[in-house]
Amino acid sequence: MKKLLLILVVALALAPNYSFANPSGKTCLDYRGVMVTWVASSSAAKVADASYTFNGNPVIVYNPNALGEKSANTRLFFQYRECGRHVLGMTIANSAQVDDWNKVDCWAANTLRYENGLKDGDFKALDEDVAGLSAEEWIQAAGPIRSVQTTGCFK
To answer: The whole model's pTM is what?
Structure first.
């Protein structure tokens, strides 16, 4: 019993640093209305990545340190975009269509506007920040490299 307890303590000590908290404190439900679990992992390769657990529960693993030189709004945009992928069902069939990614971008932008209070000037700065992503940074951001125009999401 002592040996098992020792193994458990060592395993927990060596485990990657994970925490379960939505970075914005907001609720995210997938297209079925199931609560999405947010998992912070400083070792995650992407800013945020929407997927499912082995039993079908929606999850977003995000790295709070990724794209650290970009604005907090830019990082939050990419995190919300992954929530949008769950909401719009884009996690079922990963689309390479730019129009599909534009829909998710606009979902994230609307969430930033209506839940976080971002204003028009904030979105201009966000679009410029995203336009300045290098190819290596796009790998962290997920999705195809493209022009993000959040200012066009509000009509």
So the answer is: 0.78
